Target: HAD family hydrolase
Amino acid sequence: MTLKAVLLDLDDTLWPVVPVIRHAEAVLQQWLHEHVPVVAQNYSVEKLRERRNTLVSADPRFQYDLWALRHTLLSEVFQEHGIPAEKADHAMAVFADARNKVDLYEDVRPGLLALEKKINLGTVSNGFADLSAIGIAGHFKVSIAAYRFGCAKPDPRIFLAACDAMQVAPSEVLYVGDDLLLDVQGAQQAGLQGGWMNRKGLKIEDERHIHIRPDAEFASLHELAQWI
Model:
């Protein structure tokens, strides 16, 4: 069947995510030192991360709603130190601003320009990056984030919702992401084609999920545009 749309993952597909999160957590920690020092004195980045992991195990919602997870964590910690929970809104705004200061891979901007001339584009992500703040929202017809939708990849529902929004059948869509399990297999199990964005030149045989076979493999958006 003719390919009518391409859906893209975001983190580690369009930009490296680990340095972004580390930077955002450092910026937040500095803000805590300046505005709520009692919290910063008792909670390092590592201690906040440990407590966040405890919250994830306690509430299934936090498996997909990463915004609510961080906001709930900050609200609880602030309240424990006699700080109004509403201040968590300010803290989250600081974190989100830093979270959206991503360094796009070099091929992303020209690659998106080349792709949108050939096919309709959309995104499906488990994160909460703001594509408007990043400056690439205009390339996409549809963008679905797990924290707003109510479930996360590899749940088929989030893939199918994107297909419905783009008014295409799942079999007419290629989903491209860096994670073999969440992105490739998740898309395939929802009836989409699953493409692997393999920027590091990894071998499937060396990965944990060696049984997964992508429908296509790419090292950049340039390769994806050529493939289409």
Summary: The chain has eleven helices and six strands. Strands lie at 5-8, 120-125, 142-145, 173-177, 193-197, 216-218.
